[in-house]
Amino acid sequence: MKCPFCNEADTKVIDSRPADDNSSIRRRRQCEKCGKRFTTYEKLETMPLMVIKKDNSREVYDRSKIESGILHSCHKRPVSSQQIAAMVDEIETQVFNREEKEVESTVIGELVMKKLQEVDEVAYVRFASVYREFKDVNTFMEEIGKLLKK
Protein backbone atom coordinates (compact mmCIF):
# COMPACT_ATOMS: atom_id res chain seq x y z
CA MET A 1 0.00 0.00 0.00
CA LYS A 2 1.48 3.34 -1.05
CA CYS A 3 1.71 6.16 1.45
CA PRO A 4 -0.70 8.95 0.39
CA PHE A 5 1.76 11.56 1.71
CA CYS A 6 5.11 10.59 0.21
CA ASN A 7 4.19 7.75 -2.22
CA GLU A 8 6.54 5.31 -0.48
CA ALA A 9 5.47 1.71 -1.14
CA ASP A 10 6.74 0.42 2.22
CA THR A 11 4.04 0.77 4.89
CA LYS A 12 3.13 -1.38 7.87
CA VAL A 13 -0.20 -2.25 9.46
CA ILE A 14 -0.32 -1.08 13.08
CA ASP A 15 -3.97 -1.89 13.86
CA SER A 16 -6.81 -3.88 12.23
CA ARG A 17 -10.44 -4.09 13.27
CA PRO A 18 -13.80 -4.93 11.73
CA ALA A 19 -15.80 -2.04 10.27
CA ASP A 20 -19.29 -1.55 8.82
CA ASP A 21 -20.97 -4.44 10.66
CA ASN A 22 -18.12 -6.84 9.87
CA SER A 23 -18.49 -6.30 6.12
CA SER A 24 -15.05 -4.70 5.84
CA ILE A 25 -11.78 -4.33 7.73
CA ARG A 26 -10.36 -1.01 8.87
CA ARG A 27 -6.56 -0.89 8.93
CA ARG A 28 -4.35 1.80 10.44
CA ARG A 29 -1.06 1.97 8.59
CA GLN A 30 2.17 3.81 9.10
CA CYS A 31 4.66 4.78 6.44
CA GLU A 32 8.15 3.40 7.05
CA LYS A 33 9.76 6.42 5.36
CA CYS A 34 7.88 9.54 6.58
CA GLY A 35 6.22 8.00 9.67
CA LYS A 36 2.77 9.42 8.90
CA ARG A 37 -0.32 7.32 9.62
CA PHE A 38 -3.37 6.72 7.44
CA THR A 39 -6.42 4.47 7.32
CA THR A 40 -7.42 1.98 4.64
CA TYR A 41 -10.52 -0.19 4.30
CA GLU A 42 -10.54 -3.69 2.88
CA LYS A 43 -13.80 -5.01 1.47
CA LEU A 44 -14.75 -8.20 -0.32
CA GLU A 45 -15.10 -7.57 -4.03
CA THR A 46 -18.25 -9.11 -5.43
CA MET A 47 -20.00 -9.24 -8.75
CA PRO A 48 -22.75 -6.63 -8.89
CA LEU A 49 -26.28 -7.89 -8.45
CA MET A 50 -28.37 -7.35 -11.57
CA VAL A 51 -32.08 -6.54 -11.44
CA ILE A 52 -34.30 -7.87 -14.23
CA LYS A 53 -36.95 -5.22 -14.94
CA LYS A 54 -40.52 -5.89 -16.11
CA ASP A 55 -39.48 -5.21 -19.73
CA ASN A 56 -36.64 -7.79 -19.36
CA SER A 57 -33.94 -5.12 -19.40
CA ARG A 58 -31.23 -5.40 -16.76
CA GLU A 59 -29.65 -2.82 -14.49
CA VAL A 60 -27.29 -2.88 -11.54
CA TYR A 61 -29.02 -3.19 -8.15
CA ASP A 62 -29.43 0.21 -6.51
CA ARG A 63 -30.36 0.37 -2.81
CA SER A 64 -31.46 4.00 -3.16
CA LYS A 65 -34.37 2.96 -5.43
CA ILE A 66 -35.87 0.82 -2.66
CA GLU A 67 -35.26 3.60 -0.15
CA SER A 68 -36.88 6.19 -2.43
CA GLY A 69 -39.99 4.05 -3.01
CA ILE A 70 -40.43 3.47 0.71
CA LEU A 71 -39.83 7.15 1.53
CA HIS A 72 -42.51 8.25 -0.95
CA SER A 73 -44.96 5.70 0.42
CA CYS A 74 -44.33 6.76 4.02
CA HIS A 75 -44.55 10.52 3.32
CA LYS A 76 -46.50 12.21 6.14
CA ARG A 77 -47.02 8.87 7.89
CA PRO A 78 -45.92 8.01 11.45
CA VAL A 79 -42.93 6.00 10.24
CA SER A 80 -39.52 7.02 11.58
CA SER A 81 -36.37 7.25 9.52
CA GLN A 82 -34.95 4.43 11.68
CA GLN A 83 -37.89 2.21 10.69
CA ILE A 84 -37.35 3.05 7.03
CA ALA A 85 -33.62 2.30 7.28
CA ALA A 86 -34.37 -0.98 9.05
CA MET A 87 -36.88 -1.97 6.34
CA VAL A 88 -34.38 -1.22 3.58
CA ASP A 89 -31.66 -3.18 5.43
CA GLU A 90 -33.96 -6.19 5.91
CA ILE A 91 -35.10 -6.16 2.28
CA GLU A 92 -31.53 -5.84 1.04
CA THR A 93 -30.41 -8.71 3.28
CA GLN A 94 -33.21 -10.91 1.94
CA VAL A 95 -32.28 -10.05 -1.65
CA PHE A 96 -28.58 -10.77 -1.16
CA ASN A 97 -29.22 -13.93 0.89
CA ARG A 98 -30.78 -15.43 -2.23
CA GLU A 99 -27.18 -15.72 -3.47
CA GLU A 100 -28.20 -15.15 -7.07
CA LYS A 101 -26.46 -12.92 -9.60
CA GLU A 102 -29.80 -11.70 -10.96
CA VAL A 103 -33.10 -10.99 -9.24
CA GLU A 104 -36.40 -9.93 -10.78
CA SER A 105 -37.72 -6.52 -9.82
CA THR A 106 -41.03 -8.19 -8.93
CA VAL A 107 -39.29 -10.14 -6.15
CA ILE A 108 -37.94 -6.90 -4.69
CA GLY A 109 -41.32 -5.20 -5.06
CA GLU A 110 -43.08 -8.02 -3.20
CA LEU A 111 -40.52 -7.84 -0.37
CA VAL A 112 -41.08 -4.09 -0.09
CA MET A 113 -44.85 -4.53 0.02
CA LYS A 114 -44.59 -7.21 2.70
CA LYS A 115 -42.44 -4.96 4.92
CA LEU A 116 -44.65 -1.92 4.38
CA GLN A 117 -47.75 -3.94 5.24
CA GLU A 118 -46.13 -4.91 8.56
CA VAL A 119 -45.19 -1.31 9.39
CA ASP A 120 -47.96 0.93 7.99
CA GLU A 121 -50.98 -0.17 5.97
CA VAL A 122 -51.54 3.25 4.37
CA ALA A 123 -47.93 3.30 3.15
CA TYR A 124 -48.48 -0.24 1.88
CA VAL A 125 -51.55 0.78 -0.16
CA ARG A 126 -49.70 3.81 -1.53
CA PHE A 127 -46.79 1.65 -2.68
CA ALA A 128 -49.08 -1.08 -4.04
CA SER A 129 -51.11 1.44 -6.06
CA VAL A 130 -47.99 2.48 -7.96
CA TYR A 131 -46.24 -0.90 -8.01
CA ARG A 132 -49.29 -2.87 -9.16
CA GLU A 133 -50.37 -0.02 -11.43
CA PHE A 134 -53.95 0.26 -10.16
CA LYS A 135 -56.08 1.27 -13.14
CA ASP A 136 -59.23 2.35 -11.34
CA VAL A 137 -60.93 2.78 -7.97
CA ASN A 138 -62.26 -0.81 -8.02
CA THR A 139 -58.73 -2.23 -8.06
CA PHE A 140 -57.85 0.10 -5.20
CA MET A 141 -60.90 -1.05 -3.22
CA GLU A 142 -60.07 -4.73 -3.82
CA GLU A 143 -56.65 -4.21 -2.25
CA ILE A 144 -58.16 -2.41 0.75
CA GLY A 145 -60.70 -5.24 1.05
CA LYS A 146 -57.84 -7.75 1.30
CA LEU A 147 -56.32 -5.68 4.10
CA LEU A 148 -59.62 -5.51 6.00
CA LYS A 149 -60.05 -9.29 5.82
CA LYS A 150 -56.73 -9.74 7.64
Automatic annotation (TrEMBL):
<dbReference type="InterPro" id="IPR005144">
    <property type="entry name" value="ATP-cone_dom"/>
</dbReference>
<feature type="zinc finger region">
    <location>
        <begin position="3"/>
        <end position="34"/>
    </location>
</feature>
<keyword id="KW-0547">Nucleotide-binding</keyword>
<keyword id="KW-0479">Metal-binding</keyword>
<dbReference type="Pfam" id="PF22811">
    <property type="entry name" value="Zn_ribbon_NrdR"/>
</dbReference>
<keyword id="KW-0067">ATP-binding</keyword>
<keyword id="KW-0863">Zinc-finger</keyword>
<keyword id="KW-0805">Transcription regulation</keyword>
<dbReference type="GO" id="GO:0003677">
    <property type="term" value="F:DNA binding"/>
</dbReference>
<dbReference type="Pfam" id="PF03477">
    <property type="entry name" value="ATP-cone"/>
</dbReference>
<keyword id="KW-0238">DNA-binding</keyword>
<dbReference type="GO" id="GO:0008270">
    <property type="term" value="F:zinc ion binding"/>
</dbReference>
<comment type="similarity">
    <text>Belongs to the NrdR family.</text>
</comment>
<feature type="domain" description="ATP-cone">
    <location>
        <begin position="49"/>
        <end position="139"/>
    </location>
</feature>
<keyword id="KW-0804">Transcription</keyword>
<dbReference type="GO" id="GO:0045892">
    <property type="term" value="P:negative regulation of DNA-templated transcription"/>
</dbReference>
<dbReference type="GO" id="GO:0005524">
    <property type="term" value="F:ATP binding"/>
</dbReference>
<keyword id="KW-0678">Repressor</keyword>
<protein>
    <recommendedName>
        <fullName>Transcriptional repressor NrdR</fullName>
    </recommendedName>
</protein>
<dbReference type="InterPro" id="IPR055173">
    <property type="entry name" value="NrdR-like_N"/>
</dbReference>
<keyword id="KW-0862">Zinc</keyword>
<dbReference type="InterPro" id="IPR003796">
    <property type="entry name" value="RNR_NrdR-like"/>
</dbReference>
<comment type="function">
    <text>Negatively regulates transcription of bacterial ribonucleotide reductase nrd genes and operons by binding to NrdR-boxes.</text>
</comment>
